[in-house]
Write a structure and sequence with these properties.
4 copies of one chain form a homotetramer. Chain A is of the alpha+beta class. Helices cover about 20% and strands about 35% of the residues of chain A. In chain A, the strands form 4 sheets. In chain A, strands 3, 4, 5, 6, 7, 11, 12, 15, 16 and 17 form a 10-stranded antiparallel beta sheet that branches. Chains A, B, C, D: Catalyzes the reversible transfer of a formyl group from formylmethanofuran (formyl-MFR) to tetrahydromethanopterin (H(4)MPT) to produce 5-formyl tetrahydromethanopterin (5-formyl-H(4)MPT) and methanofuran (MFR).
Chain lengths: ~300, ~300, ~300, ~300
């Protein structure tokens, strides 16, 4: 299969379940909501070494938020046990402390709910208040009053959606990946948790050549500079640089939509020469996103 | 004392020691270095609930970096034991995985050094390489080769530099705080770890009114909306909003310089009515930054 | 009438016809399309002193552009005679010369069309090419080939949509205006041509106190700092700062939608105290946008 | 000569005199100064079709501006007669109307001065005021009072500093040009007037193949896609994309410094394969900037 003349590999991305919660952060302007959202979703690229995986899902206009202010929607992904803890910590440390922000439950219809008890921060100066039909707490702080919800929904979503953008030089692969990441930003229900939405260094579990325990090492099969040294290399001939886009979504449909949008954008960048995806031959995850069926 | 007609409180900020390391992140353009630096310094506002305190110190031109590429300098602050761990994790998860980045030791002259052994990620495909006189490792990854240093210096710096920007309305206090935060960004040796460099909700240790253990609650003495309910309020009459700027610096001089730059900028914003600072009456920290002596 | 507790003046904005063309600029990423669009819409705040009025209407995803690349839509507004000239100049100088851009007719259904003959730049090295069903020219340039349309539509739209955001201090009025400008950016069919979408200095035609010819002077009726000196002042008591949002739209409905979105956003900013609008008592323009009927 | 392994052509850039004025725009924060500066320097890429050439020279901290607020410095370049007119128009339309801005003479020591009489806008409500030792006018406007200087200096500077960034693919050449443009932004005394600081389409005076009068057409000697059709092509073998960086500076030294900084940055981008420069064989301009002598 080809898209805009670029071959699309006959393969699939393999995904697996992950729990996630959506937090809506509003601010006096989008800029201030975004400042808080950026801090709250930092240090959250991969669950291997970060406390969670998180990213900005998209922007919300005042019509789309409970308090009528501009907002930023984020997704926080981890184990079922860790999602509440991470939502709590990231709101308490990064959003409650940020200028002009409020937070709202971005999954009000989710069956699974949890409560973050942030109102204790008020030391009994807090009070209940309803905003846009939501039960919130108003907590006196230095800037004035912080207002936000405490009960959040979470769903079992999908992690590991992915595809590779390849080219015969690094700058082209990078621009292809950037175009893809930008396009995915427009898709609701999906995030890319890595910096800039792009992964420059893929990993495999454990090591082949080091004998001591190590959680992850470079995935040499996808490393262009050692292509000649790796007998089972998966780097196509002529490819000199690969970036991976890794996607978490609230459901399979969102991941598919994000993958499709990203790939369509990447192949428009002149010089992008091949699109593939990573999987564990179906051994790891229950979700298979066949590239050929995305479009 | 007054500055641009704004009264400067006759008080001091109280600081205490904190260990910190400077990591220089370079990229193919500043934008890409900044993307990685932003991810690496996220979820790092306050050591109370985050794994560390971190922030972007400033931009570096190609003339100022070991590899001649544009860079972003970050500071990562924590206990002496946790700094190496956090530098390791944040580089491994947020920078090594980011597009086009390299990392370098930003404190080559520090006596205290540590080693982050990131080259094991190469699974023996890595090799040593010298860049700008620095001993680096070259690790094959998907985008090409990652190059970076592994040995970093750390110093015992100063946390808790701070001042308050006050006004009779929230938007004015916010713009004053923003102007301050922008000005501090230009000062080398200092960071503001909170989102946007601004703290909207100050805290006190423990609680007064809740009887169960809780690490921190709102600092009601600085809450304008409950000024009438708090007998020992420190909110000046007429003040309706307060933002705090919290500064960590590599030494006392950097914190002083950052405080001075920030306050000078804040008082230029029309409507900012009072500048003060927070302390524990000298009981907690060995450093006292008297506002009157900053200028 | 009140909105979020803020009084909305019982008045109307007065608009008048203006010709305008929509140019779609695409680029390899949105960033590069935006760089060109920003240059092309600069020096275009007011037809009084600028060659035209222009602004960025909004972003387009790859699904919304003829060539499948991300885009930025701009509107260029002037007299019927000047629109073709300004579209020509701004494309030739600011977009053709910019990196990775293409331009497309953003009003393919308009009855009124014009032709900008940009292909002569190719000095007979150019050729015709079809992109997304559009008849384009391909012109060899340094970066590779420039591709773009030459025939553009234009419509008689509406200029002069406006409202005032008022507060008892400047920073609050400014943040209210900024929130409004951000909200209007989301409305298709409308632009705000002034810097940042905000007007800080309103004007009246001619002068009252200077006797020599002068095209425009400050509108003293809306100047808070001389409120006491101007008998017919329109500054409400207590108001210390006013910003105006001026809107051009492709039709009356777009202007109304933009005004409504902007006002709804402005009144959410704490401290914004009054919303009004400017008119010439119905003497100048055929369009009257009553604030009370917008919602 | 080589730089970072990239051949630097044995040629020179040819420059010629141009008059220019520096305007310092300050704002309540850098963001607001930048918003005005961006509008004021738009539609100003090339004097061929724009009313002037203009660009942002750099950022100024509060310590570097007359009023102690953060600022943005711009250069406006044109004929000696047109500089005053363009400074007047761009300040009046784009800065006076923008939020929170002031303007100051950025060339107080220039022998050549001009006066823009902007205070007539005040319709006799204006008054004189001194700011930072500068004689300014205070004009009542809607947001409050506008304050700014009216007398500006101008100097005979240098236009036409330039170099070409070449690569075997477009994305690499683009990133090389972007790195160069970023680096030049840090050099005081120089601007790049084109969108993003980058020129994608070079031109020659007049036409070769069209017989009617036309001011400029594509410079086919530097067009990679028609390399085989142009006997006197200057496109090196293997080069598929070229971007030009065009620089105006206040003097020869500034242009040299900017060219050096830009070229040094460009050659760090992986894949950039050749650097050259454009000239008219010394027939046009009195300034020759030999690439080999820049470093």
């Amino acid at each position: 299969m080809e898209l805009n003349g670029v071959p699309i590999d006959n393969t699939f991305a393999e995904g697996f379940p992950i729990w996630m919660s959506r937090v809506i952060i509003t601010g006096v302007t989008r800029e201030w909501a975004l400042i808080a959202a950026t801090e709250a979703t930092g240090f959250a690229t991969s669950a291997i070494g970060c406390p969670c995986e998180a990213g900005i899902e998209g922007y919300l206009s005042g019509d789309e938020t409970p308090d009528g202010r501009p907002g930023v929607s984020i997704l926080i992904c981890a184990s079922k046990k860790k999602v509440p803890e991470q939502v709590m910590e990231r709101i308490a440390e990064c959003v409650l402390t940020a200028a002009t922000t409020s937070v709202f439950n971005g999954m009000p219809d989710a069956e699974e709910k949890f409560d973050i008890k942030i109102h204790f921060f008020g030391d009994k100066f807090e009070s209940k208040v309803e905003v846009g039909g939501r039960q919130c707490w108003k907590i006196p702080i230095m800037e004035g009053d912080y207002v936000g919800e405490e009960v959040f929904g979470m769903v079992k979503g999908v992690a590991g959606g992915n595809f590779f953008v390849m080219a015969d030089n690094q700058m082209t692969a990078l621009m292809g990946a950037k175009a893809a990441s930008d396009a995915i930003f427009e898709v609701r229900g999906a995030i890319t948790s890595f910096a800039g939405g792009i992964v420059a260094s893929g990993s495999k579990v454990g090591a082949k050549n080091y004998k001591f325990p190590i959680p992850a090492t470079t995935n040499e099969q996808y490393c262009p500079t050692i292509r000649e040294k790796v007998p089972d290399t998966k780097v196509p001939e002529g490819v000199k640089s690969i970036y991976e886009i890794v996607i978490n979504g609230v459901d399979e449909a969102s991941v598919k939509k994000a993958m499709a949008a990203g790939i369509k954008a990447a192949v428009m960048v002149p010089g992008v020469s091949f699109i593939s995806a990573g999987n564990y031959e179906g051994k790891l995850g229950p979700f298979q996103f066949k590239l050929a069926e995305l479009f």
